[in-house]
Write a structure and sequence with these properties.
This is SusD/RagB family nutrient-binding outer membrane lipoprotein. It is a single chain. By secondary structure, this protein is mainly α. The protein has a single domain, classed as Serine Threonine Protein Phosphatase 5, Tetratricopeptide repeat (Alpha Horseshoe). It has 21 helices and six strands. The chain has helices at residues 2-29, 41-57, 59-63, 66-69, 88-116, 119-140, 162-179, 197-214, 220-231, 257-262, 272-280, 286-289, 310-316, 326-329, 340-352, 360-374, 379-386, 398-409, 414-424, 449-454, 456-466; strands spanning 73-75, 143-144, 159-160, 245-247, 268-270, 335-338. The strands form three sheets. It has a two-stranded antiparallel sheet. A two-stranded antiparallel sheet has the order 2-3. A two-stranded antiparallel sheet has the order 4-6.
Length: 480
Amino acid sequence: MKKNIVAKGIAIASLSLLFAGCQIELEEVNENPNEAIRAQPDYLLANAIKSNADVILGSDASMETTTLFVQHWAKIQYTDVDKYTVSISNIQNIWTNLYSQGLTDFSEIIKIGEQTGNVNYQAVGLILKSWSFQILTDLYGDIPYRQAVKIEETLTPKYDAQKDVYLGLLSDLKKAADLIDPSGSPIGGDVVYNGNLVKWKKFANSLRLRIALRIADKDPATAKAVVAELAADKTQLIASNDETAQLIYLASPNQNPVSRDRETRDDYRVSKSVIDKLQELKDPRLPIFANKTADATPTGYIGVTNGLPADSAAKLGFTKTSKLGDYFTAPASPAVFLNYAEVLFNLAEAAQRGFITDEPADLYKAAVSASLQQFKVSTADIATYLAQPSIVYNPANYKKSIGEQKWLALFGQGPEAYTEWRRLDYPQLKPAYAGVLGGKAPLRLIYPTGEQALNAANYKAAVAAQGEDRLTTKLWFDAF
């Protein structure tokens, strides 16, 4: 009996070894020698940057939402979205693309940096991850942050309060700036700064400045401390238009999303709000932001009122209204993440609030000049523009001076322009003509239906904490 048991044991063991050997052989046979076992950080970085750039310029987060809400663009056809009938697919796509593409890839880059000892990949990944979260919370409010992009731990992450997200991002960006070592290991796949780590540090610090001003009305003590630290050495911030954080696109098929969209569509025009303001201010950016009408018109530039009924918009005429300027529809037109003018406007506001001791009027003039220089306006024309009484800085209503000029300087940056308009409340835009929100404008995006279905408990908790899941619910940062 013992012999039979031993014999069976030997047979089973032999078969196990045989099957194990076969499995190993099959695995070896099925290995693709041309496929990387570990993700390449340079490919991940380039792909994720472009993915996020496409989001902030594309239909979902820009063309069909924020550029209309902030009245940079308007619709002359298919006008429902311009009346605030927001597409559920646009709402879902922003969330899905930022979480499952950009944030996932940036998290992997951080991990690779930690595993390989390359602190610069770690830092750049953290900067871009923070930027992605900033876009999400600006648009939706409370969002999954601490538990997000950790599918090995949870598939249903909790939502963090917007205040906690902003404070967490300030901490993460400081850590990233401190990690950067310009003399250390290089990074590849950098389609923003081409491996210039000094500029990445400036981008991190400038993002901190942006977020500090974002919370200034609700948490002025924290905002002041961050700004004072950053302003102590302004060379550590973006300090020229050459240092603007942006992705410059290439020719087709890697062209600017606006350029790609214009190849088959002609339903957008420059908003009447923008053209009227540019004409009122005799602003030299008018022919850059808008094209002249194809048919002759009294002023050459005619904007479209936001939120017109479809038949009223159509009657204006495709050839008698101004299309978006060629600068913004060119294949290589950049996706701007954070520009020099914004840094100066933020410093001007910080000075006016007493966070720093600089002269706010000087910083404001420098900010306006930087925006005009960005669009290649001549020195003489800049001087003429700044000398106008309508442009002179008004310390008694700094939000109007900064808000209106920042609104123009952020033209083409839909999500950021929309957020700053909500925060500063200037310019004072009239809601869409035939809007569906009872005479109000959107103050956020609603959460995607996917969250309601797949993360229901945490979604409900977020709504209970933040307020009704409506376009008109104010976010925490939006104090006034």
